[in-house]
Automatic annotation (TrEMBL):
Top-rank EC class of the record's enzyme: hydrolase
Family matches, as InterPro entries: CRISPR_associated_Cas2, Virulence_VapD/CRISPR_Cas2
Stored SUPFAM superfamilies: TTP0101/SSO1404-like
Lineage, highest ranks first: Bacteria, Thermotogati, Thermotogota, Thermotogae, Thermotogales
Subunit structure, as described in the record: Homodimer, forms a heterotetramer with a Cas1 homodimer.
Family recorded in the similarity comment: Belongs to the CRISPR-associated endoribonuclease Cas2 protein family.
PANTHER family membership: CRISPR-ASSOCIATED ENDORIBONUCLEASE CAS2
Record's protein name: CRISPR-associated endoribonuclease Cas2
HAMAP family: Cas2 (MF_01471)
Any Pfam family hit: CRISPR_Cas2
Organism superkingdom: Bacteria
Cofactor: Mg(2+)
Biological source species: Thermosipho ferrireducens
Keywords: Antiviral defense, Endonuclease, Hydrolase, Magnesium, Metal-binding, Nuclease
EC numbers: 3.1.-.-
């Protein structure tokens, strides 16, 4: 059985590195807002994604927070305005 998580990633990255982090996250999950990504991801891809991020950030200046959920059903999401992407369509 594949272990799939729903993740929410928020970050505050030095502008010299922000595009690199954006490109990494975009490979794995859906961009929702500036500095915010979310979606379903396998455990193995979580490890890959985190490894790629760690190689690009400066821990002295940058901050990334990843929230892990067992299911999207355990959170309530309210969007005021236009949602960039329908996360339920995120394909692994």
């Amino acid at each position: 059985m594949i272990d799939i998580k729903y993740v929410l990633v928020v970050y505050d990255i030095n502008e010299k590195r922000v595009n690199k982090i954006h490109k990494i996250l975009k490979k794995y999950i859906i961009w929702q807002q500036n500095s915010t990504f979310e979606g379903y991801i396998t455990q193995s891809n979580i490890k890959k994604m985190i490894g790629e991020i760690k190689r690009k950030i400066n821990p002295e200046e940058d901050n990334i927070v990843i929230y892990f959920f067992n299911s999207k059903n355990v959170i309530k999401k309210e969007v005021d305005g236009t949602e960039k992407w329908n996360v339920s369509s995120n394909i692994l």
